[in-house]
Amino acid sequence: MGGFEIRSATPADARFMGDMLVEAANWSVSRARPRVAILDDPKVSRYIAGWPRPGDFGSVALDSHSIPIGACWARLFPPNAPGSGFVAVGVPELTLGVNPQWRAQGVGRALLKAVTRQALAAGHSRLSLSVERANFAQRLYVSEGYVTIESREASDTMVATIR
Ligand SMILES: CC(C)(COP(=O)(O)OP(=O)(O)OC[C@H]1O[C@@H](n2cnc3c(N)ncnc32)[C@H](O)[C@@H]1OP(=O)(O)O)[C@@H](O)C(=O)NCCC(=O)NCCS
Description:
- This protein is α+β, with helices and mostly antiparallel strands.
- It has helices at about 15-25, 35-40, 40-45, 105-120, 135-145; strands spanning about 5-10, 55-60, 70-75, 95-100, 125-130, 145-150, 155-160.
- The protein has 5 helices and 7 strands.
- Strand 2 and strand 3 form a beta hairpin.
- The radius of gyration is 15 Å and the shape is globular.
């Protein structure tokens, strides 16, 4: 589909990042829910609500017309209101999504690497995420250095030590 570029996410990207959060929640087409139902679900909307909050950072991929095609970002959660991939105070948790027509072309991996660089620049040494084991995205995470540190019924919490 041609080339893409990556830039830091801004406050104006909130709507598109919401779209990518919906893509992440709807990774399994057989269980897909409408956008409004997903973003009304606090377990999902907590990843984007109020973007950007202090400590948030992320990247957006753009096509050759500067149209957003994917996003990855990280947010810190407190221990009394943890995200699904919470591992410790101060370890940001990732969200990643790519537009369906742009998948399997390196955008997801490039976004993951971009956010890792942002995390390092912000002084972090680890990143975490939660992924369902049936989602091939887990293989991408393994290949980028993520290891499973906790398994629940259908999903794993994974952590990468970044450098
Ligand atoms: C998961 C996702 C972000 C990956 O982004 P992407 O741009 O498609 O991934 P990339 O092209 O960078 O590919 C990453 C790896 O996954 C592999 N891959 C890509 N599509 C695949 C598919 N349909 N099945 C199996 N493996 C696949 C690629 O082969 C690649 O590995 P390689 O570099 O060794 O070839 C994207 O597919 C997506 O948005 N999925 C829906 C949302 C989602 O599941 N988000 C994650 C929730 S935890």
